[in-house]
Amino acid sequence: MEESKVTPEPLLDTSVAQCPINPSGNIVLKYKEIESGEIVKKGTELRILPVSGSITVGYLSDRKGGDGNGYRGQLKKDFLVVFAGTESSGTMAGGYYAAWSGKTIQYISDHVDSSLKQSPNIIFLAAGTNDMNPNHGISKEGNDPKGAADRLGKLIDKIVKACPDSTILVAMIINTCDERQSPATKEFQKFIPGVVKSRHDDGKHVLAVDFTTFKTSDLQDCIHPTNDGYKLMGDYWYSFIHQIPASWIKKPVGPDPNGGDGTNGGIDKYIPAPDWEKSPIQVTSKKTVAGAAKYTTGGEDKYVTCNGNPWYKGTGKIAQGGVGKNGD
């Protein structure tokens, strides 16, 4: 009797593999110039959550005449956008994000939950620069590129689970002119398309965005962009947003997370609305109003006019955004 042979099923490989910078398929978006003001998806608000480190914070963008808004300021100029997140900096109103200077992928993962609850429909994920730092006082989990890529994949999975309707743009981080950090950075960049592809192939709305073409001559300290570099970085993100499949961009759920810009004395978003109990203004019937009018005119059906001298006295400047604890 002939012996039957059973071919064992292949085991699923969950490890991160390097992927070429230009993998097959359209999972890596490239920068191309797009005119400012172009609509991304008509009738759909863009609620963007930037998740990152000090570059998203806008570190050093407040120097040499800068406003501290980093690349987010350029995006605000390019089109209408609402930023989500629990952190803020810079001079613009509503300049929110989930980013922490000098922190690693793991730290970001441990602190991003509150921001994810704000239901963004687009998420920028640019993380790993600090993980590649040769100083382990900064790269606390070590600066091994593969290990960082594994942590990045887990962070993507966490974001997808919390925000299944969002589109996640995962940055192939910018280069550095720091010779000690550059080799690890280039190695890490090569892993990112593979990390993204495995999620994309599983039906997740995840794309890689290529910042490897961002020139180191646009950096002021080999890590952070110059003021003009930050503007260019905003243009990069603007370009990538316009390349997202329109069907992926869903309307955000719930009210805008920043609650407006605080103009006219709007209260901070973390202060609960006051409880006035019963409203002093009550809805009543036309008959009641007519009766009140007759009473005040001695029972006669006629109008009474009141002569007054309305006046206004300015007592100060209306509060603008950017003055509260969270910049709102």
TrEMBL record:
GO terms for molecular function: phosphatidylcholine lysophospholipase activity. Pfam families: Lipase_GDSL (PF00657). Gene3D superfamilies: SGNH hydrolase (3.40.50.1110). It comes from the Eukaryota. Transmembrane segments: none annotated. InterPro entries: Ester_Hydrolysis_Enzymes, GDSL, SGNH_hydro_sf. Coiled coil: none annotated. This is Uncharacterized protein. It comes from Fusarium oxysporum.
